[in-house]
Design a protein that fits this description.
0% strand; mainly alpha; homodimer; elongated; 9 helices; 77% helix; DNA-binding
Chain lengths: 188, 188
DNA sequence: CATTCACTATGATGACTGTCATAGACCCTA
DNA sequence: TAGGGTCTATGACAGTCATCATAGTGAATG
């Protein structure tokens, strides 16, 4: 836990906690306890305080998911839907139905300070661009791909909330089923 | 502000604050200040403390929206989509892009105590049933209506988050456009 | 008039929050 | 060996949170 990775550990822990408990639940006390990182050096690593930590956490998970989307090499638009929803679904399961999207939680928990809101906005935009490209690559209708991406992201975010509320991920079945139909209609 | 409506005032105020600031931001101090209700009688009206207030607020807004859905008398499935998203969209605008769905915020902000999670779960289920019926009434494919309802609710919840993050409601355009196509495909 | 009840006012409690100052520990370089 | 920069430990700070106890109000009932 010494040397240089304390900062990274904190950011990583903040991502998990952000998904599970939101911005307010991600207090420094909880972060340091969950990650076994030293409480004394917080303002050394994050001079901007809590906001800086959360921002970095949002950037981190945002970039990670973006990379995941960019790596999708699907043969059909329906496969893009399958992979995208499948990832979120398994994330929900992995959290034992106790986690939401960290970015969504940040957008919701953003207070007066606009920095957090803007950070999550940028992530959403990045995801939208990447997913749009993925749809185009898979042979979807080019002019509709942006719409498809928006629908998928919005639906996934909503499904996470509903799935968590019901401790059940069957919502994803309906979404996957219908959105596959939608994106297949015009493509190919 | 005397007599019997203090309780109702508090619940009403809690709904607004819940949508804007989430569970944690809906503190008693803020509620009483925003509604000009007496701070001293909180535990008289809500012996269950904060949880009871939030629960009642979720029930309240849940029933209100349910009634709204039940009142929809649409000629086509596409019209159901139009009305449903239109309502959420104008709610977002009305809040100056600073409000989410109060029920979603409660689901997210629910802590260890399961009561809040369950309350929001029930509301989501109620909405799902009502919207499914609305689709069936409008002539949509009966076996697909449940899926349609799930997709619409999830997408709307996600769109609220994204719209708030970007202070922009153009996401709703894409959603409305595509989901109208989807629900029209099999219906009629 | 007296009692009871619904409601309100005030303030204390202890826990937790983000923030920061101070001082000590570690290790690389000279 | 000495110095200096990076990191850590400890704890104080002002504030807010939910909760509750105590005391008080006024009105309706008996």
């Amino acid at each position: 836990m010494n040397r240089r990775n304390v900062r990274e550990e904190m950011i990583k822990g903040a991502v998990s906690l952000l998904a599970e408990r939101g911005v307010h639940g991600t207090s420094f006390a909880v972060v340091t306890e969950a990650t076994n990182t030293p409480r004394g050096s917080i303002y050394h690593h994050f001079p901007g305080g809590k906001n800086e930590l959360i921002e970095k956490a949002v950037d981190s998970i945002g970039g990670l998911v973006t990379a995941l989307i960019d790596a999708v090499d699907a043969a059909t638009p329906a496969d893009v839907v399958e992979v995208f929803f499948g990832s979120w679904r398994s994330a929900l399961r992995a959290s034992n139905f106790d986690g939401n999207c960290a970015v969504a939680n940040t957008a919701i928990g953003a207070g007066e300070d606009d920095s957090l809101r803007v950070a999550s906005q940028h992530v959403f935009e990045k995801w939208h661009r990447s997913l749009t490209s993925a749809f185009i690559r898979s042979g979807a209708d080019t002019s509709a791909s942006s719409d498809y991406a928006a629908v998928c992201i919005a639906a996934a975010e909503g499904a996470l909330i509903m799935g968590r509320a019901s401790r059940n991920d069957s919502v994803f079945d309906a979404l996957s089923r219908q959105l596959k139909l939608l994106v297949s209609a015009s493509g190919r």
